[in-house]
Amino acid sequence: MVIVLYGSDSYRRTQRLRKLIEAFKEKYPTGAVERFAVARSEKKDDAQQEFLRLKEFCGTASIFGDKKMVVLEGVWDVEVRRGKKAEDAKKEEYVGISKDFKNFLKSQIGQENVVIISGEKGAPGGYTFLKGKGVTTEKFEELEGAELKAFVKNEAKTLGVSLTDEALQFLTRFYGKNVWGLVTELQKVSSVRYQVSGERKSEIDLKTLKRAGDYVETEKVFPFVQSLVYPGSTSQKLAMYEKMMVLREEPVKIFNILQSLNYVSKELLERLADYDIMVKSGKMEYDDVILDLIISG
After folding, report:
1. Which CATH class, in words, describes the domain spanning 2-139?
2. Spatial separation of the C-alpha atoms in residues 10 and 269, rounded to whole Å
């Protein structure tokens, strides 16, 4: 069985992946869940070795007949340039679009193994077989407008938080399509609502929300965020960042706002995606990311 999860809303996509894994483990307590890093990287040999390990994992029968789940992330997210022989040669080194990988996916359709592919981009051309039986595809587009507000309300309810319309409007305007930032803020509000009000409130209004979130006004934080987008004085950026720390602006919030801007270059977005992976894997902290952006920019 093959499941493809794709779309730019990485939060909802990641949550869906987590639920699929949890459901699999609950149904098959002795089953095996493995992640394989076959996405294209600078170390192509590592990706190829992972692909060989993947095929071995799926091809080896368990002694006790235990079920297997495979998780592959970002397989098709890399951009492949075409038209030059050099690029075509590199293209063949890319596991995600190789004939071997395509044949591997075909072999898993209708099998007991569960193969999940999750990434921003869906399957490239030539993978029409993924539209047939034995394959489930789910798309996660960025939410906006009424759909975004409904999602935030539902997430807040899950956390035991109810927002007034004014507070909801503020959050969706402040974070925009940055769902990760929205949910992080809801979690913060949920954890501190007792200290803020002294008692449990049926609804969180805008005043309480701002006190709980300790928001920096937009006109103060945006100039610094914008400075990370464009070249400029490193010392000036460091001074601005120091001011953000004095104002108790969290690095994760700065990162989330930067990631949500619609005028950020493609190159910077790719760097931010790499940073995000390193943070989530424990290799960096958001403070390190902001400092690295300042020094390298």
Report:
1. alpha beta
2. 14
What is the value of pTM for the model shown? 0.65
Residue 267: closest CA among 297, 237, 226: 297
Alpha-carbon gap, residue 269 to 261, rounded angstroms: 10
Greatest mean pLDDT range, 142-146, 214-218, 226-230 = 142-146
Where in the chain are the domains?
2-139, 143-214, 216-297
Q: What class does CATH assign to 143-214? A: mainly alpha
The beta strands (E) that lie in the chain are given as 2-6, 32-35, 68-73, 114-119, 135-139
Separation between Cα atoms, residue 10 and residue 258, nearest integer Å: 16
Largest CA distance in the chain: 68
The pLDDT tens digits of the residues spanning 244-288 come to 888 778 888 888 888 877 667 778 888 898 898 888 888 899 999
Enter the tokens of residue 13. Answer: 């996509």
Q: For residue range 117-135, list pLDDT tens digits in order.
A: 998 888 888 888 888 888 9
CA dist 56 and 1 (Å) reads 17
